[in-house]
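Annex B.
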Amino acid sequence: MFDPVCPSDLTPIRFGDKWAGMLLRCLEHGPRRFSELRVPLRGISAKALTKSLRSLERDGLVTRRAHAEPTRRVEYELTALGRSLLQPIAAACAWAREHWDELLDAREASSLPTRPVQPVRG
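Helix-turn-helix transcriptional regulator: predicted structure tokens.
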């Protein structure tokens, strides 16, 4: 899922927005700072990351904790509700791995140019 050549929009199963599932997986092993989240999510812009984190926070899946001392920093962490999504996400990832070739074939077939429909003359 975090491979740089992997098209993250290929998987048809979504948890929230395009990045939400991957963000939840990034937070699986504990709290992380904004800049730490951008490392595995190479293709995400700061704006998209902020929007996705706010959405996850609004839905009760992630908490945002600001620390003032000794240096100001903000960390994001999964809530119990967010942790409860890890198993369904793992199942979706396993399904995508199993059907990866079929998904790629379907995407490729749908992107082929189609011939224009000829009108029926009668």
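The helical segments are 20-26, 34-38, 46-58, 80-83, 86-98, 100-110. The mean pLDDT is 84. Further annotation is deferred to the next reporting cycle.
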